[in-house]
Amino acid sequence: MSKIDDETTKVAVPVSVPVPARAKLPSVKRIGGWHAIGPIVIFLAILAVVAILTPAFIGGGGLAIIASSSAPILLLALGQAMVLNVGSIDLSNAAIGLLGAILLALTLGPVAGLSPLIVLLATTAFGAVNGLILAYAQVPSFALTLGTLGIFQAVALVASGRTTVYVSSNGEGVHSLYESGIANVPMTFWMGVLLAVALWVLLRYTRVGRGMTAIGKNESAAIFSAVRTRSLKVLAFALSGFAAGLAGIAIIAQAGSASPTGLGSDLLLPAIAAALIGGTSISGGVVNPLTVIFGALTVALVPIATTAVGIDAQAQSLVYGAVIIAVVALTMSRNKSSIVK
Amino acid sequence: MVDKVLSEQGAGSISTTAIRIRESGIERRARFRGLAEPLSLLVALAVLIGVFSLLNERFLTASNFQNVLTQSAIPLIVAVGATLVILLGSIDLSVEGVMGATGMTWILLSANSRGGVDLGPWAWVIALGVALVLGVASGLIFTALKVPSFIVTLGMWYVGLGIATMLYGTDLLPRLEDEGLKGWTSTITFGLPNSFWVALLVIGLGILLLRNTRIGRVTLAIGNSETIVRSAGLPAFRVKVAVFAIAALLSGLGGILATVQLDIGSPTVGSGVLFIVIPAVVIGGTHLGGGKGGILRTVLGVFLLTILNNGLILSGVESSYQSAVTGAILVAAIVFAAWSQRDRLQVAK
């Protein structure tokens, strides 16, 4: 009996004494710091390799090419990061983006300037529907958005009649987003940067943003702290839909047409990879939209870098997969006793 | 202290009886739920079959039945592995990549139109070896480096596709030239297609693994609470690696059979399988959080989706709508399953 008591006190001592707990704090901080600069360091490291091996690429406006090709990925990744931040995942956002592009191509002719607005409203609503079902039926987001992914894909197929939809008229305004730019980088990319800054402000300085991060860190605690978890989750998914709509606009700006199998049809996984390489935690509560920009740039850079290093074009997806695993393994914060699923 | 606890228990014997009654009630309800969910799936299947056979008389013929079984065989094989991984509470997204890599390895080492070597049965061993390496790699990165399985297997999907694309190279399509194997998957033996016999074998072995082996029991336990598994000294690490290896082996087997069925080698031989397999597992009632569910339920899920798609095509529904139907059924199934357990304090990820 007394032995049991002894053992319990022995176990209890290190927990109750505050010194070791305090000693642990700096390491957590250090990981946080690595989180902030990791994505930038990785991007610059890969860029440096490319710059050394093919100096002509950087001189010949290569950075602008990377930035312009990363624009749709960046927009989708920002929306995905918002959803990941509340501890969920949105597998349907790329499909929503593509559907947005098809809707834009269909409506630009008839309603001209109103069309982008309609598309953004529609995609935001699609995202919000995901969020509403998730929040009120309490179903896992992975399965839910996998289901709605199928539905949006089918709607895109039916709306486009399985072919490429070209913008019939009034396409100049949207197209100029890709043609014009600052520092040789198209406006579509700056649109992503602007959205990233806006989301960063939302997450850092507003009650709404802090609440979203709180849900990702510990949803039960957030509920008990009177955080409006349901509305905030709906908002996170609506933002994902909105960002997907912007991605759809970026696709039309770049290609002038949209098809269910063309540009933008396989952006789901690159966008998730961009969000994760950008330091977003897949289990929620850790996100920085500003570093997601570098995540998206890295994802766009990897194919270029593999060619620059002299790796066969056919090995690209192999390198791509290895880089995703390696980068996340390097930048992830983990502690010894945590359970990883 | 112990004595005091014991005496307290003795004094409160009436309340323990109450607790026991309550517990048996919970158990009974759990057993009812365990029966009700597969039953509702069976009813849904029966209704589907009834409706489709009214819509098109070709639906309820033996040849269409065999057709459905051939179509469902590969998703069934892959889904057994996917169920095991999901029971851990993890996810395996790499199936299509593993299928591609294994299928390409196999066809290039078998009799094919590009010539090269014909290793016969050794082609199977080496190809499945590739799958095993990919699976063990996923499992080790997941467990040793603690990278979430979603990301590891997402990366492994690309790695598998990359291997397949490199093997494919820039030469002509490798066409299968083994006359004995051509069309083997859909050949009927004892009334059932060969590939379905393989699937039945895999399902049987999967059920045995889950029910009667240490790996299976620990898999379920990890899904329920990994903390408890670890503190009980059970080999969580090894079991997780083993489950990812088994899942990859089954994806690889699916990849080889899909290559035989397609008759040519292609890196994208597994294209679309993931979107059948994961919805099928979830519709079957296996929890994405792990610990709850089983292989037979997944089998029902795969049948539901295959019969639905087959029936819709026979009823003249355009194939564009297929993914919407799968998606809508998936959403309906999860909402239906979660509806009774909604609670203000419930956490849904």
TrEMBL record, chain A:
Its main location: membrane. GO terms for molecular function: transmembrane transporter activity. Keywords: Cell membrane, Membrane, Transmembrane, Transmembrane helix. It is found in: Cell membrane. It comes from the Bacteria. The keyword Phosphoprotein does not apply. The chain crosses the membrane at residues 34-58, 64-84, 91-111, 117-135, 142-161, 181-203, 234-255, 267-287, 292-311, 317-333. It is a multi-pass membrane protein. One of its GO terms (cellular component) is plasma membrane. This is ABC transporter permease.
TrEMBL record, chain B:
GO terms for molecular function: transmembrane transporter activity. Its main location: membrane. Pfam families: BPD_transp_2 (PF02653). The chain crosses the membrane at residues 39-56, 68-91, 122-142, 149-168, 188-210, 241-262, 268-288, 295-314, 320-339. The keyword Transmembrane helix applies. It is found in: Cell membrane. It is a multi-pass membrane protein. The keyword Repressor does not apply. InterPro entries: ABC_transp_permease. Keywords: Cell inner membrane, Cell membrane, Membrane, Transmembrane, Transmembrane helix, Transport. It comes from the Bacteria. One of its GO terms (cellular component) is plasma membrane. PANTHER family: ABC TRANSPORTER PERMEASE PROTEIN YPHD-RELATED, ABC TRANSPORTER PERMEASE PROTEIN YPHD-RELATED-RELATED. This is ABC transporter permease. The lineage of its organism: Bacteria, Bacillati, Actinomycetota, Actinomycetes, Micrococcales.
